Amino acid sequence: MRSIVGEIVNSSEGVTVMDMEASIEHMSRGTVRYVDALLLVLEPYYRSMETAGRTVPLARGLGIERIYGIANKLRSPQDTEAVEDYCHNHDLELIARIPFDDNVVEADRTGRAVIDYDATSPIVEELSRAADFLLREVKVNGNGAGGN
After folding, report:
1. Domain harbouring 20, CATH code
2. Looking at the domain assignment, is residue 147 inside a domain?
């Protein structure tokens, strides 16, 4: 896995995004040496937030400086507040607050991306803002991780 990731990142022009399972296991596999930024997706549930909370110090210990949170599937102001409080208490910058949207399920049923199903969805707008933030804050194709 480590060599595949290295090859992809080193031969890629632009941004490479990898979606990995919600666990801390991949932190020990050596793939993090290619990471310029780590995005942690948090849902407003205890186990999801605790996984992110355990990941932050591990990632920092491995030299990853840019660690950001993305709140997902927020159904209420209480959900938003819970994730915001958790991120604040665990030194995790929250860069997106994505509301729960039934259009995601409907888009998936039709085999389409949410942006193709409903380009005006609040999810599309929020993810676009997060992408703009990342492009400004993280050097594109920084040739090496850990804050390059």
Report:
1. 3.40.50.300
2. no
Give the separation between CA 124 and CA 39, rounded to whole angstroms. Answer: 17
3-class SS of residue 55: helix
- Predicted structure pTM score: 0.79
Q: Tally the domains of the chain.
A: 1
Q: 3-class SS at 50?
A: helix
What pLDDT, on a 0 to 100 scale, did the predictor assign at position 136? 87
Residue 144 belongs to some domain of the structure:
no
What pairs with residue 93 in β-bridges?
A: 68
What is the domain extent for residue 95? 2-137
What does 86-116 look like in DSSP terms, one character per residue? HHHHTT-EEEEEEEP-HHHHHHHHTT--HHH
Question: Is residue 66 left, alpha or beta, with left meaning phi > 0 and alpha meaning psi from -120 to 50?
Answer: beta
Please give the torsion angle defined by the CA atoms of residues 100, 102, 106 and 108, in that order, rounded to the nearest 10 degrees.
Answer: 20
pLDDT 10s digits, 21-56: 666 666 666 666 667 888 999 999 999 999 999 889
What does the angle CA 80 – CA 15 – CA 148 come to, to the nearest 5 degrees?
Answer: 90
C-alpha dihedral over 119, 124, 126, 131, to 10 degrees?
A: -120
